[in-house]
Amino acid sequence: MREDAGVTDEDAPGGTPLVDEAMKKAAVAWVSVAGGPALALWCAPLEGALLVVSGPGEQAAPGLADATEAQVTLRGDHGGRIVTWPARVSRLQPGTEAWEVTAPLVAAKRLNAPGPTADLVARWAADGCAVNRLAPAGTPLAGTELPADAQTEPPRATPAVRATRKPFRLHRVRRR
Fold first, then answer.
1. Between 50 and which of 14, 37, 43, 120 could a Cys-Cys bridge form, CB atoms 3.0 to 4.6 Å apart?
2. b/e per residue, 35-59, with b = 16+ CB within 10 A?
3. Could you report the per-residue pLDDT of 84-137, keeping only the tens digit for each?
């Protein structure tokens, strides 16, 4: 990590290779704060963490601005869950060195931004938008574990049986 990024050693990535790789490709993350429902939030991966912007004129993320921890679920191209991991949440404050370095990078990655990047960052600071950094803070859930609010159920039993087909024969061989 760069020294001028405003990231301390305690903010260093603590994820697994799976979490790190999933974060690099993430554009949307499902974030749950304090056991609440998971919300789909736009995010930007940067230096081993996900950055999420919320507030006036941006996406709604109730409770995230004041949270210290959250649970993050990332999905793959096929739509299925890849990994769920606990995250340490830290809010970047306007005027700090971390804000000056990170906020423009996040603003540059925002799609359909109204106006130039510098104006967007200035609006975030003026309107009190929260730029939160979600860094891995523990081991991810195992592949078979799901969060309590996953709304999944095991497959139902079915009487349907796949019929086995008889092998195809071109001709019948007669034995004498």
1. 43
2. eeebbebbbbbbbbbbbbbbbeebe
3. 899 999 999 998 999 999 999 999 988 887 788 899 899 999 999 999 999 998
